[in-house]
Amino acid sequence: MSANPYRLFFLFFSTLLSATSSVAAPPQLNYQIIDVIARDTRPFTQGLEFDGNQLIESSGLRGRSYVVKTSLPNQQNTQTLWHTPLPAPYFAEGLSQVNGRIYLLSWQQQKGWIIHPDTGSIESEFTYTGQGWGLTAIDNQLVRSDGSHILYWHSTNDFSELKKLEVTWSGQPVKRLNELEYSNGLIWANIWQSSFVVAIHPISGSVVGWVDLTELTQREAQVAADNVLNGIAYHEASNTFWLTGKRWHHYYRLKIQQPYPLSPDL
Ligand SMILES: [Ca+2]
Q1: Domains of the chain by start residue, with CATH
Q2: pLDDT by residue (tens digit) across 70-102?
Q3: Measuring CA to CA, which of 93, 110, 194, 238 is 20 to 30 A from 129?
């Protein structure tokens, strides 16, 4: 693993931006920091999603993985509603709530769990092929990333794979898709080991906009290559995105420009 992953992916994105293609490059999206909220720095954040005004977060690493649900984080008194550890061999990854249940992935063990959102109790398990990175839900189906440029749609019934989608930037694959969030008709993904978030059209797979969050990664003063930007959750009531990273000291609440109007041929 490089000691300076952010530099590498700046170069990666520079390559994409300068790519010659008949397809127009996606626009860079502006953002505004609405709030910066101190948080527990222990979570090795893998999944982040709101259930109304409550935040669900999964934390990775073998022997230390867990899922936690809290009240809406604030500066004074963030309450833990439940905390569910995973058995030692498992490395928790992305999560998403759909049909009244939380689905949680593991990284390489090809096993996931269905968790009750009110109690945190693990109700059942499911399996899949490949790695688990990010997870989000669209129209009662789940969408998984595996660190590649491909997103996988899964059934909520048995987690069987329904379809795949290649994610591209002006026709070129966008690899290392990680934590996911579906909001306002687009899949938002942060790119592992980078400061970038991309907005993906869920039918074409085209990146239709991107956000450069170097300002946030610099604020967090990275001291370890693992402590990357990871975690994007949309809070519907305030129309804001919450961003954080592994062992980061803060949640950042952002207004992000939407890449509309989308071209009809996407
Ligand atoms: Ca998310």
Answers
A1: 27-256 (2.120.10.30)
A2: 999 998 889 999 999 999 999 999 999 999 999
A3: 194
